[in-house]
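Re: that backbone. Tokens:
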């Protein structure tokens, strides 16, 4: 049976960050259980840092973007299994 999944997509173009600062832990890792409203990453756009929050509950199964990569609007960043 195929797993039902969804992706968390970039709401805007910018730079993808997996953690709030270089000294801190990643927001999420593969295998983490996330709930609606959890911060999963930050996007920097024109020197403004915006938190990206999960819109629904699930398990992180893949992080599709590397830390500090540039992303485009609506680009899939994180793959999540629906639970």
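Recovered sequence:
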């Amino acid at each position: 049976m195929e797993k039902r999944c969804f992706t968390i997509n970039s709401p805007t173009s910018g730079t993808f960050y997996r953690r709030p600062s270089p000294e801190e832990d990643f927001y999420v890792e593969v295998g983490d259980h996330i709930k609606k409203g959890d911060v999963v990453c930050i996007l920097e756009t024109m020197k403004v840092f915006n938190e990206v929050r999960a819109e629904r509950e699930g398990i992180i199964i893949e992080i599709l973007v590397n830390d500090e990569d540039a992303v485009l609007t609506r680009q899939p960043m994180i793959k999540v299994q629906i639970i």
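The chain has one domain: 5-81. The beta strands are 5-9, 14-17, 33-34, 39-45, 48-53, 58-63, 70-71, 76-81.
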